[in-house]
Amino acid sequence: MSGELSCPRCGRQEPDSERFCSACGMPLVRAADGEDAASERRRRARRIKPQYTQGELVRVARAQNQSEAELIEDLLLAHGIPSLLRGAVDVVDTLAGGRRDVLVPESAAQAAREALAPHGASAESF
Ligand SMILES: [Zn+2]
């Protein structure tokens, strides 16, 4: 698996150590493998709503593994919500048990929880 992250808004590639796009400040997402996936992701990234990019990052869900996290990420993106997966970057994998926190900007938190709720994902309320 590549450690590359990419910006959901402008598609800029960033190293794994970065969390935000150095060009536009968006939370970075893990780059998909292959050209098709990358362009698909970039195409969908155009749907991101500017009002969902404001505020501190807050956790809206916890995925049990990377695959589940990416499903949540895709679901949120379909709602115009940018998200950031945390876990592999911050915590040694064995300690995290493979779990990933799904973070979104605060302005998108409510919409994200509503988007996740009907799908049985582990959305959390605070
Ligand atoms: Zn960017």
Q: What's the domain count?
A: 2
CATH architecture descriptor of the largest domain: 2-Layer Sandwich
Low-confidence parts: none
How many distinct helices? 4
What portion of residues is helical? 25-40%
- Highest CATH level, the class of the largest domain: Alpha Beta
Whole-number mean pLDDT: 80
Small-molecule binders: zinc ion
How would you describe the shape? globular
Radius of gyration of CA atoms, rounded to a whole number: 13 Å
How are helices and strands ordered from N to C?
A: EEEHEHEHEH
Please state how the strands of the largest beta sheet are arranged side by side.
Answer: 2-1-3
Category from helices, strands and their pairing: alpha+beta
How much β-strand is present in the residues?
15-25%
List keywords for this structure.
globular; Alpha-Beta Plaits; 126 residues; 4 helices; three-stranded antiparallel β-sheet; 2 domains; Rubrerythrin, domain 2; binds zinc ion; alpha+beta
Compact overview of the structure:
This protein is α+β, with helices and mostly antiparallel strands and 126 residues long. The protein contains 4 helices and 6 strands. The strands form 2 sheets. Strands 2-1-3 form a 3-stranded antiparallel beta sheet, with no helix packed on it.
Provide a descriptive summary of the structure in words.
The chain is an alpha+beta fold. The chain has two domains: 4-46, Rubrerythrin, domain 2, CATH 2.20.28; 51-125, Alpha-Beta Plaits. Helices cover 29% and strands 17% of the residues. The protein has helices at residues 35-45, 66-78, 93-96, 109-116; strands at 5-6, 13-14, 29-30, 57-63, 84-86, 100-105. The strands form two sheets. The protein has a three-stranded antiparallel sheet, with no helix packed on it. A three-stranded antiparallel sheet has the order 4-6-5. A hairpin with a 6-residue loop joins strand 1 and strand 2. The chain is globular. The mean pLDDT is 80. It binds zinc ion. Zinc ion is lined by residues 7, 9-10, 12, 21, 23-24, 26.
